[in-house]
Design a protein that fits this description.
- This protein is of the alpha/beta class.
- The chain is built from eight helices and five strands.
- Strand 1, helix 2 and strand 2 form a beta-alpha-beta unit.
- The mean pLDDT is 83.
């Protein structure tokens, strides 16, 4: 990971990094990877912010509570549409607006997590669902290389708890590239280049 980080840093002008970190144990390999990334990045002159989702007790569920004030249609609540309106009107809750601020300021976003059942932990999925709101992070017209974050870089750094051979085309868990496809698409929505 350190070599990949250094090559990413060379292409960054402002060098602001956000690490979205999801692991409950400070003694985990994920914690060590996060700490190493912070050390390497800071050593290269980067400003690093870490959103430690478990330490923050980040709410994983996307609900009407994410909006301050009244919602447009309480009887038929539709999260994407309601949070788009709330974002436009400055009525998203503080937890979401703070994460959106960090994301907006970052040139590089690193997602650090253990893979649980072939995807991110629920708390990180909640971060994705709640922070990357319609309007703020994407629109029908602006996605992927044309998206709002087209000049940002994004990186997945994760552990699996399985041997590498288990994530091969012939392995019991299947090809890692296929497993990661939804997360790679997310990274494409955030960043113009996958790493």
């Amino acid at each position: 990971m350190c070599a990949q980080l250094q090559s990413l840093i060379l292409g960054l002008a402002a060098k602001k990094v956000l690490i979205v970190y999801a692991h409950q144990s400070t003694g985990s390999f994920n914690a060590a990877a996060k700490d190493a990334a912070v050390e390497v990045l800071a050593g290269q002159g980067c400003t690093v912010a870490v959103s430690d989702l478990y330490a923050m007790k980040f709410k994983a569920t996307a609900t009407a509570e994410d909006i301050t004030g009244e919602v447009k249609n309480a009887d038929h609540f539709r999260y994407a549409e309601e949070t788009k309106l709330a974002w436009e009107e400055g009525k998203l809750c503080a937890e979401i607006t703070e994460e959106q601020r960090k994301l907006t300021e970052a040139d590089l976003i690193i997602f650090q997590f253990p893979m649980y059942w072939f995807t991110v932990p629920a708390i990180m999925k909640g971060w994705i669902d709640r922070v990357l709101t319609l309007g703020y992070a994407y629109s029908q017209e602006k996605r992927y290389s044309q998206g709002i974050f087209k000049d940002k870089k994004a990186m997945l750094s994760f552990t699996t708890g399985s041997h590498e051979s288990m994530f091969s085309a012939d392995g019991i868990n299947g090809d890692m590239n296929v497993t990661l496809w939804p997360l790679q698409v997310l990274n494409q929505n955030i960043a113009s280049t996958r790493h």
